[in-house]
Amino acid sequence: MKQVKEYARERSIDELYQEDPERADANVFGRKTDVGRRGFLGGAGLAAMSAAVGGAIPFAANMPGGLIPAAFAQSTPPTPTVGTSPAAPAAPKGPQHLNFPGKSDKLVVLGDRPLVAETPEDQLNDDTTPTNKLFVRNNGQTPDEAKDPDKWSFEIDGEVNKKLTLTLGELKSKYKPVTRRMVLECGGNGRSFFTPQARGNQWTNGGAGCPEWTGVRLADVLKTAGLKPSAVFSAHYGSDQHLSGDASKATVSRGVPVKKLMDENNLIVWQVNGEPLPNINGGPVRLLIPGWPGSLSAKWLNRIWLRDKEHDGPGMTNFSYRVPIKPMVPGDKGDPKNFKILESMPVRSIITSPANGDKIAAGTKEIKLRGAAWAGDLTVQEVDVSTDFGATWTKAKVSKPKNKYDWQRWTATVKLPTDGYYEIWTRGTDSRGVMQPHMAGFWNPQGYGGNAMHRIAVLVG
Ligand SMILES: Nc1nc2c(c(=O)[nH]1)N[C@H]1C(S)=C(S)[C@@H](COP(=O)(O)O)O[C@H]1N2
Ligand SMILES: [Mo]
After folding, report:
1. Tens of pLDDT along 77-117?
2. For residue 231, how far is its CA from the centre of ligand 1 (angstroms)?
3. Segment Disordered: which positions (predicted)?
4. Distance from the CA of 99 to the center of ligand 1, in angstroms?
């Protein structure tokens, strides 16, 4: 009786697994587990799971108990519901696709006020991310399109020898332009893989893209203004309005220590992939501060303020863009004193082909994988893939970055011994030897730095 009542409520599969993975297994797949490895079970439980994922599971013996099959965990938003029948998980709710001029309808909306849309991993299969597939992360209202982009101006003030006001026209004529392929990645990328769920947009791995940016070096412009010795930190501002409509409030304003600020890879950009930067991605002019959370890369740039202390604008304090110093109890409130600013983004590898949920012709014995990997300020040393729930791993061929902060494309060929349901996993290792974890670690209330290994489901036959 008790169980019937419990499952009469709509629950997400993640919720079920969060509370008690072994019991969730039993409820979802119609069997009781008393050992942690599913393969020892066989029989009815395995049959039910195979039915649920759509095929035999050749490597079932390696499948960790309590692991949500990628076939269910795949969808965005990542909260498919389990119906009233415990034996049959209901089809996941479909993702909401973006309908926006200049953007691909393959982008998935995570929020519409403010507008937030991510690029599913399989849509990041191009070596250079096309502009129509570049994710969108607004914190406030999208401003109106600038009528005369070359007249767009921004200010550099605060701890500088000479306060500057520069127009886009002047930027173009006075400084040497550079073009770089660089990753822009939201600080919350990977957030949806935290358990329990963390506050904020539930990004899978799609809060990232790697287009070609054209602009001038931020450091060149800052040298014209001349930093005073008292300048220790920056504060970046854009012209977008706060959702409340209060013009005195900034939507988000973040900054970096001067050492990072003067890095030659930081750009003030006005072009992406050779075209004017679209309004939705911060045009006519934005900052691009690669390697660190995307929130530093102010869109609709109108001010860079040099400060004599750490910036305290919206997005700088408390738990915002901060990670725990000492691990905290997942789900706890947390103590701001135990938090530090998230700087370099962690290593991440994604499979961009095939797509999660792809069906492959019966009898296929080998498939080619493609993906991308990047690691904040660092490079990627190694990418591995597994088709047997992590029992064995194959090294992928990883390309060199075109320039610093470019992502690294990778390829691998894997064998699939028989028809059936497979999960393909990938994990990246950065140039310091740090590897992605199986589960998002260092839980924090707002879910930053989540870089669990990426996995997809494929069905052969
Ligand atoms: N002015 C302004 N700049 C901003 C934001 C914003 O809301 N307003 N969002 C930031 C965040 S959180 C991210 S991840 C990136 C996203 O850039 P994109 O929308 O071009 O993908 O822009 C950053 N710059
Ligand atoms: Mo972000």
Report:
1. 433 333 333 444 444 567 899 999 999 999 999 999 999 99
2. 24
3. 72-104, 117-149
4. 19
